[in-house]
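# nightly structure sweep
# worker-07 picked up a monomer target from the shared queue
# config: single-sequence mode, recycle default, output format = structure tokens
# input follows
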Amino acid sequence: MNGPTTEGRKLSRSFGWLVLLGTLLVIAGIIGLIYTGVATLTSMLLFGWLLLVGGLVGLLHAIESRGTSYFWLGVVVAALNIAAGVVVIKHPEGTAEALTMFAALLFLTGGVFRLVGSVVVRGPQMGWTLLQGAFGLLLGLLVLFDWPHSSLYVLGCFFSLALLFDGLGLIAIGIGGRRIVSMVSDRLDESVPGADEPITAPKDEQK
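# output follows
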């Protein structure tokens, strides 16, 4: 009867690794919130390398599928990803400024649409939608008025918050999973009498 116990230990160990990974992400998120400029440049470099590697992988897939109808489309998309990755890696500050402007415009348009939509529709969630729209509009204006200086901390702050919340989520999953595995293992041990007792040979065989 050691099978369930062994599997439970393996699952508990796996959830423990999730807790460890979540803790590392939380630490990285806190450090990023303290040093937002470094977090912004780091996120831009990671973004550039993801584009570059993704473009190279897409190019390899396109070469493998040569002769098909979507060969040239794959080549064009891969070339654009590679070019964008090179530009982002070479000019992370300029890319951060452009993306920050884009984010500010998204906040502004999203806030305006939520405000107008909540007034026109007047649904049961009107107050909450108005609050969301006002917050998005205010955030977009704050980022836009402080641009391009806001590009030094906005993206880094978002990146760090994403790491922080992802880490907290992994920690919660890991702790909850370990508790469930422990409860299931305890109930299995209780339901099987003598599960923890060593298995001995019959007396006739011992003789």
